[in-house]
Amino acid sequence: MKKLKEQIMSMKRIYLVLAGAVIVLLIACITIVLLYQNALRPVSSKSKEVQFEIKEAETMDSVLTRLEEEGIIKSAAFAKWYVKFHDAGHIKAGTFVLDTSWDTAEVLAYLNDANAALAKQATITLPEGIWAKEIAAKISEETSVSKEELLALWNDETFLKKMIEQYDFLDESILNDAYRVKLEGYLYPETYSFLKESSAEEITVRLLDEFDKIYQEYRKDFEKSSLSTHEIVILASMIQFEASKAEDMYLVSGVFYNRLGIDMPLQSSVTVCYALYDDFAHASDCETNADIDSPYNTYQHNGLPIGPILNPGKVAIDAALHPQESDYLYFIADIYGDGTVYYAKTFEEHSALVAKYLNQ
Known about the structure:
By secondary structure, the protein is mostly helical. It folds into 3 domains: 49-116, Dna Ligase, domain 1, CATH 3.30.1490.480; 122-213, no CATH class; 219-357, no CATH class. The chain is built from 15 helices and 6 strands. A hairpin with a 7-residue loop joins strand 5 (330-333) and strand 6. It is elongated. The mean pLDDT is 88.
């Protein structure tokens, strides 16, 4: 009898353990289901449009990870479960306008719609060497933001101070009231897809974000340079303007460094172009107006111009950081021909080149 009681007690304990395990398992399952459902809900209850680009042949795992990183979905891990359970692993390449008030299912469905790509967006190519006022004009043609609004923002001290706090490559050097456009030099030339209803600030942050990618790539070189970051950007803008071919940029950079090293005026005609600004129509105007009174004019003032004279690309920035060594102190570009750059070591050699290619 005692043995039977012990067996019954043992069985009860087993049942209790099993019941407890079932309850724990049930609670775990319910918890996972609730977490799963919550993870698929929208990131925000408020509507906010954001753009998202999917590259050709990009994997679903990569897309889901970026969607989470960019704050469009709550969880890439739970989104992967959703994709498996609902056969939702179909996406199209392109640029999409998504909304943070959409749940994961809506986001994935939209990314599977090829017709949705580029909706409400404007694709704008900003070529290397473009001026800020030209960038503003191009953007205003394709978006709801006006040229005047952009240029005003790019000179707005309150906004610029906020950007200085946000980006390591900016400092108070840009807060110079003598500048035509205070963000000139930092509006990185690239092909962009902007929401047509983007604000001037959102557009500007995109441009600065692209510059920041280049800055972070070359950060150690910027820090090692004898010139400040702002001076490198100024020099890169001159190099970009002077040399139409990438291979010339490094030699041109070397010539400028040679002149700076011996305190020789840079005498760069492209700085005259920027000094002329609205009165500049052809490269020849820059050759014949070296006497214009402007802090940008390197014929009238030693050293670098007061600020950047356009928005340089990656190669020009690289050239400003890594000049090619030579004995050259002079160069000219054949502005009436194919733009070939000719170099000289002496003023006599330089004068002969000017007579041959520029005195027409």
